[in-house]
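User:
I would dearly like some help making sense of a protein record. Take your time, and here it is.
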Amino acid sequence: MGAGIEPGSLKGPLPRNFTDKRWQAARTDGELFWILKNGSKGTAMAPFIPLVLTEEEAWQALRYVRSFGQP
């Protein structure tokens, strides 16, 4: 078996559950894009556009995240 992550070893907040259908339904694509561009105040999420992703790459990432909420 591979090495797992030890319980309690992660520091800081865990990422959101992007497979949560209620979370998916409560946010528009525009809201998610804004968060990628501006970060998420009150969290450790920093802006990703244009430092990490181009705008086109951000839209591709959003489409990928949206696929998690599909049946």
